[in-house]
Amino acid sequence: MTIKELIERNNELRPGLNDENRKFYDDFLVYSRTISWLKDEQAVEELLLRTLQELLEAQKRGQTARHYFANDPKGLADSLLKKLPTRWNSFAKFLFYTFFGYLAIAFIPAISVPGKVVDLGAYMLAGLYLTAAGCFVIWWLGTAVYRFQQSTFPKWLKMILAFLTGIVLIFPAFAISLWMKTVLRLSFDGWVGIAAIVVMLMILLVYQKISTPNQIIDRPIYYYILFQALVGILSRLPFVEGIMATKSGKFVLAGLLVFGLIIFWIVSWRMLRQLKKEDES
Hints:
Layout: H1 3-13, H2 19-35, H3 41-60, H4 65-68, H5 73-81, H6 89-110, E1 117-119, H7 120-150, H8 155-179, E2 185-187, H9 190-210, H10 215-234, H11 238-244, H12 247-280
Antiparallel strand pairs: 1-2
Helix pairs in contact: 1-3, 2-3, 2-5, 2-7, 6-7, 6-9, 7-8, 9-10, 10-12
Protein name: Integral membrane protein
Keywords: Membrane, Transmembrane, Transmembrane helix
Organism: Fructobacillus papyriferae
């Protein structure tokens, strides 16, 4: 079975657990997937499915997960994942995905407006920060998520704390890209800008093909970036560039960018609804 098929099979079988066993297994699954980024994903998903099948068999015999596996989802995950081989090339891929993925995602909207001077050095520094922060988060996230789920905080407070934590981690990258000044400040006008957008789209395409992103979450982002790229290319074409330099042309360009943002939020809302339905099924 492929990784996708293993995940789909896992999602199909999980509703067969009773409430107590599902709570145990969900904690085990979330923690396992979070801390296993240096493990082979195929082996991890096979392990998760095999554990779920064992739990379903134990449930038929009247045993609970906490009785069958002992009262410790985290300890169970640690002991099982330890037996899987470590893949250090996953670490190298993570560094590549984070750094170049950020550049492709952030840089295309930044140069979509002709005549704007873009600080390439600041974006590269922001990418390096996110890469370093990502390494720390992945090292720390597994235990943090597990303890967070086990806490007795109300759901609304957990959502607020998670949102604030994300803001604290991501804000420095925005601050660096927006306010830091470096010597690599460039203007991407005309065909230079078109070539830069095409190159970044190619990097983004490679990133999407070789990574395994969550399509429900990432699809709106890709749509938005593609829309921004098309606006950036069209506004730089010789027969359009002069029009965009006028006051009315700038209003049209601003309207297109706002329209793209509205479409992004609508698609995101629909995708999140789909994700919620899949979690509840």
